[in-house]
Amino acid sequence: MQKIILILVVVLLAFSCGSKKQEPAELKLVKKYIQALNQSDYSTVISLFKDSVRMNELVYKSTFSKQQYYSLFQWDSVFKPTYTIEEIQWMDGYVEMKVAKKCERILFLNEEPIVTKEQVYFDEKGIKSVDIIEYIIFNDELWNTNREKLVTWTANNHPDIDGFLYDQSLEGGLKFKEAIYRFQKIDTVQN
Hints:
The mean pLDDT is about 90. The chain is elongated and about 80 Å long. The chain has helices at about 1-20, 25-40, 40-45, 65-75, 105-110, 140-155, 170-190, and strands spanning about 55, 60-65, 80-90, 95-100, 115-125, 125-135. The chain is α+β, with helices and mostly antiparallel strands. A hairpin with a 3-residue loop joins strand 3 and strand 4. About 50% of the residues lie in helices and about 25% in strands. The chain has 2 domains: about 25-140, Nuclear Transport Factor 2, Chain: A (Roll); about 140-190, no CATH class. Helix 4 (about 65-75) packs parallel to helix 7 (about 170-190).
């Protein structure tokens, strides 16, 4: 009888420990989303959203059709972004995470990765929205200064690629990247 009770206690303990380690499906979904972003895998990213992509940034709210998001995704992918989840937790209805993003554009403009606090909301079909609720690391003054230097220099020296700043398409991204490359190349030669 003692052996049976002991076996039952061991089985119950093993079962309860195993269930505590079970990660909520929403956490897995967010990790899959970040992994797909890191791999520039549009098909996987878009499959995780219901029918449109909602990206909210502080007070700015944006809803993209899948086609509209594809254009933005291509633009962002030009700069080879990498996302690192620094913290993540399930908050009873949404996932909250701290994410560091770096890419050629961000490192040029901000001179270090941007770190944001984000909340990801869900519906029955997947991710409903990704909301940036706080910029933890972002140097607005440095960003604006570096952007203005690049835009002015490009307009004066390479009008063939000017106008990239507000063109969030693949072509605009390629021009933006080329402007950074040319600017850094001339800066390296001068120093």
